[in-house]
């Protein structure tokens, strides 16, 4: 895959028009490719001197374990996302990251980032934008847990994933492949697995959306957007802001 | 106030040892000082071409309004924090920011940031660290709403504020001034005001912490840390990582 076709370049390209020299710096960041197997943490809470990764293929989730043993999934990561960007900037990782499918990712250290920023400060602004977008998603999840009911939360979640996947070329017109189990959805949305099942059935019965056999299909996209109160501004996909 | 004494310099200094030239770039960012009055939004959701701010004095809160009119407070901002960093990188602000007290802040545009990063890429890495730290806090709030009960959530919140305030020189040994009302705590923690009142009384009755007349006093810091399962790693205050 050419650098300019990589999911990260597609994503950053939504914020900043990347020059050939920016793409050259990006492609240096992709040099140390690693492969990870499902269900084995690639970054874990409390780990020090951790690398970060840029995801090329696959799905992962970031989560925290509580002293009760409960798991809260914070977010899912898809191609083009940074894994553990905080871990590389902090001394100690404050969360776990686990591959859901096989994951191919490029390893980065803090000094890789610093030297990339030295070569192209525009890339620094783009990475700051990407990190801000990640934060905006966590904010939406927070608002969801605090103030949205179960069906709105699920609708919002499925719409957000669609917008993210589409940006990196992984969603079709109104559907996408999704390897997430109902248990994972439950741990992300603060619901029980039984509740997740009921909510998905309700979305299907109301003709809004079908999640079956690893595929999400929007049967009534506008209706779902309405139900979720979904506002795409926080994902900001309207084309480069910095020329 | 000298630049190296500013709350932002103190905060970024926890991540990167700032050189005189870094401090010079920072002090240019502080040139356009603005003043804001309490209870009047300084940034609002849906606003375009928004500036960001670096807070010098005061308290503010970032929040989202739902279509039901309910408010979810996402976080509180204190001196040294960026206000609306996402708003300046996104086309459209995805949240509101409102001063709680009088606020003095310096105005920044996206091009101010880009030019600062061009002059010192180390500063770009430090700002990315600060943004990552903000994200880590939102993650903790998410975990709180999803998986912590009311008293753990409150304990965690008061400990986090203390660590943040201490970093910028605004907390004493085991106490700090806090202008937040019980209504604000309720909207941040996903509780009712009555519930907030009950939880604060419980913390006081158990000899852990007293929040009265705008001042938080830790009566038993270690006990509170235990109760909250509070881990300071996500705030990362151990001194410069980048020499």
Task: Report what the structure shows.
2 copies of one chain form a homodimer. The first copy, chain A, has 243 residues and is α+β, with helices and mostly antiparallel strands. Chain A folds into 2 domains: 3-132, Jelly Rolls; 135-234, Orthogonal Bundle (Arc Repressor Mutant, subunit A). The first copy, chain A, is 43% helix and 19% strand. Chain A is built from 9 helices and 10 strands. In chain A, the strands form 3 sheets. Chain A has a 4-stranded antiparallel sheet. Chain A has a 3-stranded antiparallel sheet with strand order 4-3-6. Chains A and B meet through helix 3, helix 4 and helix 5 of A and helix 3, helix 4 and helix 5 of B. Chains A, B: GO terms for molecular function: DNA binding. Chains A, B: InterPro entries: cNMP-bd_dom, cNMP-bd_dom_sf, HTH_CRP, RmlC-like_jellyroll, WH-like_DNA-bd_sf, WH_DNA-bd_sf. Chains A, B: Residues 148-222 form the HTH crp-type domain. Chains A, B: Keywords: DNA-binding, Transcription, Transcription regulation.
Q: Could you tell me the number of beta strands of chain A?
A: 10
Oligomeric status of the shown chains? homodimer
Termini distance of chain A?
25 Å
CATH superfamily of the largest domain in chain A: Jelly Rolls
Q: Largest interface here, residues on each chain?
A: A-B, 55 and 55 residues
Q: In the CATH hierarchy, what is the class of the largest domain in chain A?
A: Mainly Beta
Give the helices and strands of chain A as they follow along the chain. Answer: HHEEEEEHEEHHHEHHEEH
**How does the helix and strand content of chain A classify structurally?**
alpha+beta
Estimate the mean pLDDT confidence of chain A: 90
How much helical structure, as a percent, in the residues of chain A? 40-55%
From the 3D structure, determine the CATH topology of the largest domain in chain A: Jelly Rolls
Shape descriptor of chain A? globular
């Amino acid at each position: 895959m050419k650098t300019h076709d990589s999911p990260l370049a597609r994503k950053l390209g939504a914020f900043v028009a990347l020059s050939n020299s920016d793409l050259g710096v990006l492609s240096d960041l992709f040099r140390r490719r690693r492969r990870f197997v499902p269900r084995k943490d690639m970054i874990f809470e409390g780990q020090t001197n951790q690398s970060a990764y840029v995801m090329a293929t696959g799905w992962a989730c970031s989560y925290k374990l509580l002293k009760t043993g409960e798991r809260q999934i914070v977010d899912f990561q898809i191609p083009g996302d940074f894994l553990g960007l905080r871990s590389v900037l902090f001394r100690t990782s404050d969360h776990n990251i686990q591959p859901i499918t096989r994951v191919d990712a490029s390893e980065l250290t803090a000094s890789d980032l610093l030297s990339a920023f030295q070569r192209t400060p525009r890339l620094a602004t783009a990475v700051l934008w990407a990190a801000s977008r990640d934060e905006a998603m966590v904010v939406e999840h927070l608002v969801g847990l605090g103030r949205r009911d179960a069906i709105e939360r699920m609708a919002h979640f499925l719409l957000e994933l669609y917008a993210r996947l589409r940006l990196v070329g992984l969603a079709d017109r109104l559907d996408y492949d999704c390897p997430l189990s109902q248990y994972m959805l439950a741990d992300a949305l603060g619901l029980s697995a039984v509740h997740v099942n009921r909510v998905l059935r309700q979305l299907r019965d109301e003709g809004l959306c079908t999640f079956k056999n690893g595929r999400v299909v929007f049967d009534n996209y506008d209706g779902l957007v309405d139900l979720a109160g979904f506002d795409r501004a926080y994902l900001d996909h309207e084309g480069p802001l910095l020329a």
